[in-house]
User: Fold these one by one.
Assistant:
Number 1:
Amino acid sequence: MADLEERFRSLARTTAPDLWEEIGRRRPGPAPRPPVGPRIGAAVVALVLAVTGIGFAGWTLLPREEKPTEPAATVSNGAIAFASGVGGYHIAAVTLDGAVMDITTPAGDAYDLGPVWSPDGAWIAFLRYRITDRDDGTGDYDLFVANADGSGLVVLGRSALAPTWSPDGTSVAFQGFRRETDHDILVAERDGSGERVLVASPLSDTTPRWSPTGELIAFTSHPVLDRDPGDADIFVVRPDGTGLTRLTGSPGWDFEPVWSPDGSRIAYLSEQWDEREAYVMNADGSGVRRLTDAPSNDIAELSWSPDGTRIAFQVFSGTSWDIYLVSADGTEQVPLVTSPLDEVDPTWSPDGTLVAYSAAGSVQSCRCDNAGTFDVYVVTPDTSSTTRLTVDAGVLGGGLSWRSTPFIAEATSPPRTPSGAEIVGTFEVGDDVRSVAYGDGSVWVAVSNNDGTFGGRILRIDPATHEIQAEIPVEVIPTWDIGGGAMVVHGGSLWVTGAVDRPGNFEDPGGGADAAVVRIDTASNAVVQTLEIGGNVGADLTFLGDELWVLLFGDETIDHRMEIVRVDPYSGEALARVPLSAKWGHTIVASEGRLVLYEPGEGAVNVDGSLVTVDPSTREVLRVATPSKYFEGGPVAWRDQVWFAAERGFARFDPVTGEVIEGSAELDPSRFAFCCGFIEAGERGIWFVGFDPRTEGSERRLDLFDPATGTVIELVALGGKGTTPVAMAVAPDAVWILNSEGTLTHVALT
Amino acid sequence: MGWVEHAPAGVERGEALERLYREQGARMWRAVLAYAGDPEVARDAVAETFAQALRRGEGIRDPERWVWRAVFRIAAGELAERRRRAPESTVIAYEMEEPARELVAALARLSPKQRAAVVLHHAAGYPLKEVARMLGSTPGAVKVHLLRGRRRLRELLGEGDDG
């Protein structure tokens, strides 16, 4: 059988028709031109320059005097983020002393690439590529934002590329695919909310770059899917979508704008007929000046020095990619790294003392940049010192991103593994307790009125003093006796789902109830809204970005099967409904843009069930049988992963592919046994209450499973049969366990 | 490739383009055939591309670069237009070796991005950076497309996996 290479050779032997005569017949007629809108004067000047020759530039439009910009006093050379190929493409970061930290851990077929730190280094945006249709191999990119250590993953955009942060780190602009090859510029808030289309021209709008002052976003616009290859030009637009202005108008391709650190100038690449060079212009499009005299037509990846005086770039020498520096006025161009190896992706350090790049480990036999194994290097601008930071990291092209604050571990989460835990105390909170949550600095406990209604009260408890700060009467509280959930603190509100009494609906075997969601403003402790959403009883709720999704028991009209309903958080209107086949469900979580829950089997709720993943955009439901007979709790979302507890231990579930990831951790049955049917995820790992088999099951214990290492830590004994845990909430420094006896146990982590 | 840079002064643009077509037109047609899976689309795109290049005359100073960039855009537009007019694709007979025919059929089952990456890199000979720019993507992303595309092709063609 022919191999792939032979098939391409076979293709090369296919006889092509001679089309020259036909070309001659088609030739008459005017050359098509793209529509030309109003252009500012500077663009006309750029056109003149392009036509008359670059030599005019110095005469016509002298750039402003180069004045170094002082780097911010607080910057330091933090970790360099890159896409690592070790163990599957994921985002990692390396410090100048060579310490490497993995930031993301994509599951299954996913690849993470293109990391971009937020300006303050607290967040990182990156792209995740994965197969989205297993039948035809279609793949796509999603844009994610995570905390600097990879936790708190949020989807910002689907089919997205080229993220760029607002200077204040609150928003990200990116290039989204609205159709196959038509890109638009979109903006979303860092938490995934408020996505809006900023630019949706008939052209393809790509590579947005937010100005350092925050006032403008530059991008490239070029024709697609027409019969005119046309030109590409650079535009700017304000972040509110107004003020769209074309900056360049040369007959060639002007693209890949890069703002100077002070936002006064834009460097860019321009392909003026037979050569591609770097140019610079003022932020209003004036003062166009050619910067480079590249040895070949291939030049890319412009990176300004922090003081704005120099620009690093990569250029193809004819045999390999090299890195050069050019002064920001174009007067001096010097090689920085030139070797027979490929050196790509130059990136200035935040303090301007180094340039990072990635380089191949061996000479490539073809002009196939990014082939082979690349590593991260740094070099001083005077070339006096070069240091290799990674070894066989398999760096994937697409850019390095240099963090301007110290290494991740110093700036973000506390250590994942606590050295110990102690019970601070157990105190009474009410007779009929239903659920507990932590958020906005408080512990929230739902207590039923125990009067035959669905109503109750929400207790707001000070985690330090255990004082009840507020007791909030509500019509709706969680209906669960065990397992908790159904309460989420999100966006300055506590969201609670359960049911409201519907006296006129006694025909409903569910007990005369409609599913409902209550929203309590955590600033005022006031019940802001009670949303009645039909169905029967709300089981759980979760937020997917800013979308509110509720898992609910359906009413008799759908044979009391479960539904997942997207609810307008303000009107209560059901915006989307996804029917399920099961009649019981407890927990729903959101991860990687999917909704995940567990459906029980026919016999009992924790036997022979399935894990279910729902694509909220297509409503597609994927069911996968659990790998073991008994289901012990979950699912929970830990960082960007979904985990659940099964018969033998913890297992990881890929919500996109529906695969249960092999190699998940099993528990030693001589030491661990799940107790109570629920688990909870926190930053440090997945928490569960277990029986200790060594005490013949009489002792319960709080344990921690660390998914990063696969280890389980025995933390603290919870006491004997006097308390029965029914729900749990995880805070950064504590775990709060609700007991059926109406008490709350505060476990402090040390 | 790159002969235009060495063209003697005074060579007429029409002659230069004809030389370019004679040198690279067949390879271009095959690349577009692999991309579009349709010899008529390939024929139309290549002919239209060179016709436009002739119309633009001296306005194009690097015809080689220009036509290679243009032909895939024109092919994509033509393909979209044909699908709009006739959603049910028809198999058009064209004489070619069986391995090549199977390859073109398998390419048609890749996602458009994978197919474009594979064809532009392996059939048209573009480096990743150039492919990335044409697809509005990044070299890293294109490399992933290539990895996935080749793997998928091998699956479809019943060959081993290259990892």
Number 2:
Amino acid sequence: MKDLNLMVAGPQGSGINFTSDTFAKVMAREGYYVFSNAELFSTIKGEHSYFRVRVNKDVVRSYSERVDILIPLDKSSIQLHLREVSRDGVIISEERVDDDRAEIVPYRDILQNVANKFNRPLSEFNVMKNTVALAAATKMIGLEEGKLKKVIEENFASRPKIAEMNNAIVDEVYSLFNPKRELNIEPTKPAKRMLINATQAVGMGKVEAGLRFQSYYPITPASDESNYLESVMGKYNFVVEQTEDEIAAINMAIAAANTGVRAATSTSGPGFSLMVEALSYAGMTETPVVIFYYQRAGPSTGMPTRHEQGDLLYSLSAGHGEFPRVVIAPGDTTEAFYDTIESFNIAERYQVPVIVLLDKAMAMSNNTVDLFDLSKVKIDRGKLILSETSSYLRYRFTDDGISPRSVPGVPGGLVTIAGDEHGEDGHIFTEDPDNRIKMMDKRMGKMERIKKEIDEEMKVKFFGRSDSRRVIVSWGSAKGPILDAMQSFNDLSFLQIRMMSPFPADEVLKYLKGKEIIAVEQNYSGQLAELIRQKTGLETNARIVKFNGRPIAYEELIEAFSAVPKKRRVVLTYA
Amino acid sequence: MLSSPVKPQNYKTDVEIDWCPGCGDFGILNALILALQELKIPNQNVVLTGGIGCSSKIPHYVNVNAFHSLHGRSLVHAEAVKIANPNLEVISAAGDGDALGIGSAHFVAAGRRNVDLTYMIFDNGVYGLTKGQASPTLPFGEMPKSLETENIKFPVNPIFLGLASGFTFVARSYSYNIKHLKETIIRAIKHRGLAMIDIMQPCVTYNNINTKEYYDGRLYDIEKEGWNPLAENENEYREKVGQAVIKSLEWGDRIPMGVFIEYKTETYDQKLKRLIPDYGVRNYVFDPIEKNGKPLQDITEMMQSFL
């Protein structure tokens, strides 16, 4: 069906996210697929922000350039977004707008009536203007008011009075507002789908994986995940520790992992930069720690609330010296859940640090996701020893290069861990050149082993016909808009690369050799394209890049797909 | 290849010690081993963390679990070990540069948590392993032979900073007074909460000012002069910590040692229990998270909350 796209725009702090989240929830409950996108400033109140919600009865995985319903919460929002409103769209406005798409809603009368009903001054209700607009929108779509009221009630479960006031507004809108026309939306069957973003998917994945220790220092857009975990740690029995800085966060996660619990930390670029010394330590000490790395627009402080995939090559090379690491890049919310669990399995099986690369777009896009299939979840703790042992050596040389891993408290299993080069016993007073070679071989040898043992699906996913001439190659959150845009073409296929280290060169060659290769990336230079060249010798024929801080809208990608590879570099600019 | 076979109740490894002959660190090692012997804590239940520097090699010499971490991060590793497994006895060793230079953010933050562990600061005024640069505790105007210029920075006062940061046990001892040091370590280990010992530890190679001879005539035991560091409640603590701060400022002909404050208050595990009712009930390490590869956590309710 044709999309229905809602945009709520206005000053930050005016209830924009409440409005869009409530709308998204109501539509998801109706059985529609929903994909939302949040664009906000690094400020608490005041600056112009806008949230979009795309609704369809078929799967949607990205946001659209088009706006069908604009809810401007201040005057400037109308001017800023008017040109995006589709020809048959609607502007739900308080004031007269010289545009026949405008539906004028008597905000003041509605709020005054509700204020009278509650015997309170009108000023107390001005903050609920967004509810007026929201109810006006759902009325135009023909949605039963009870469905909206139920979601509002749940949102304000802890403040029933506020729920009551908001719902009185809904009643008033449904009786007083008579729209000039209706917005038709194809009916669909109710479905049970979660409305979540990647921070929540990762959070659930961590709990299911048996996480016991998470450390973090507040940073956008990563801390939503830790805050979500804090909200459930009492029930699921694990610790979330807010540390004094990211250096403490990663060091604590490492020490907790070495104590024998599943441990992780979550951060973004600036925080990861502070963690790098310890990442190298984790490699040297063969510590199974997992770092969840939510990329945002850099360099430096950059645009903290905006999107970018600028840290791929950095995540692969950060850290002094050479050590094995695994880097996994989920492409959507569902993958974020399963990959989170697998990241702990890989970390413990191979005793290596694992980085899970995510980004702002995934962290802040709520979308409809089927319930996770928990019967598919497996936990593998590798060679962890939790009962008595003897003649124990933490870094014992073994045939597969992986040493049995004891932890403090195990009788006979005293552990010595050191970031200096060490012998099998972990003691550091050997800078013996032969030992050095054996230890380097032991650690670095894990990379080949991981490459060999990990399933293809964990490394790459291929979409479309294998005989198509043009192949898109991409990673991370670009997956959504690519799959949506591909539907307009029948000569395109798509290779999603999911494991960045160790790089699945064989699989990539299998799918890309002899093809016209088009890289799509949300960074300036095309970092994956560079990586593919380094690891396989294959050259991309064109690079479609976006680095204006906003995720990709699928329509701009359709345009770009038509232009490549004739055009070798396309810069996407939609905001 | 060197190895350290496990000898129960033997707290010394066979690892060859590479400190300079006469180094103050030997006294600390001996006092620590004597303390562990007296307390008879099973070796496998002790974790000793180190940072980087001469001091921080000590985990290799004590026959317990040894986490030799990064420069400045010994305390952070120790805190996380204790949080992950509160059944362990955790001791952290660090130099004065480790603790009060590169690791000072952790020092201050640790006071806010009050994790039940013992923090031993090997305080010699210089960075020995990099050939004797000034450390944060080197007194203003001093110029040990290893320095190119006199030290124009004011020193950090570890006792004052420990008190200000909210450490619930703050002490100073001396590596050449093994009896006092051993007793102080035992008291620190027994203390429920974050216990710090600032250990005067002459560096025989680089610091020719703050030597054994320097300290021998100056250090005096405040507890022998009638100071009672114990605070059983918040009111007592407020009163005593102020007096302890005044004592901590003394430096010169007389240098105070002994326990400055010993405050019985909520430890971090108790505070965590406010948020996580089952914290410490089930051991995070030894309580399984899977059975035959299937997870034991069930997130069905979490998923349903998003429907």
